[in-house]
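Researcher: Dear colleague, please comment on this protein.
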Amino acid sequence: MASSLTCAGVVWAFLSFLCAATSCVGFFMPYWLLGSQLEKSVSFGTFRRCSYPVRDESRQMTVMVEQCGRYASFQAIPSAEWRICTVVTGLGCGLLLLVALTALMGCCVSELISRTVGRVAGGIQFLGG
């Protein structure tokens, strides 16, 4: 297999992939904020939450649902700031994955990544980060 990357480019490709994978895992995990509510441990991220309170109308009280789940809709995310964060972080993870996978393909395919493409990819990574 021929490569269009230098040795530094190969290292960049693998580090880019590791960083993109770590960012995506962090984005999908609901452990951004940890705390307690109604004597239960709770956590939530931009679009997922674990152990959250709901109103039980039959017993007329608030109970804790002790499971993880995503919000029912985009509008159910608690605030406009968290909705913006969800969109921006999701787009950033998508850009990082796009660049990382392209760089990894550059390790296997000759003439895929030129100096100009590498510079543009670095700029995209900067924006994605």
In short: The first helix runs from residue 7 to 28. Residues 53 and 63 are 6 Å apart (CA to CA).
